[in-house]
Design goal:
There is one protein chain. By secondary structure, the chain is mainly α. The protein has one domain. The chain is 72% helix and 0% strand. It has 5 helices and no strands. The longest helix has 16 residues. The mean pLDDT is 87.
């Protein structure tokens, strides 16, 4: 499973070329605060991030909230 996840991550981030969508650290912090209410409802961070910012990222949709947060910080926060 980890190998598949790594391949999907590579396809999502490296093969498509450079990501041209970024958010600021402040936007990320605000998103995390807003997400608390969604988390109580049982929603997943990756799905909510993609929905809020109109992004399509299969990897985010399958990651746990903790891993999705790390992924977002690494690939989307500047």
């Amino acid at each position: 499973m980890f190998d598949q996840l790594a391949k999907q991550l590579q396809v999502q981030t490296l093969v498509k070329g450079k990501n041209d969508f970024y958010i600021t650290e402040q936007e990320f912090e605000d998103f995390c605060k807003e997400f608390l209410f969604e988390e109580i409802k049982g929603n997943h961070m990756g799905d909510e991030f993609c929905k809020k910012y109109s992004q399509s990222n299969y990897v985010l949709s399958i990651l746990s909230n903790y891993r999705a947060k790390e992924h977002i910080k690494k690939f989307y926060v500047k």
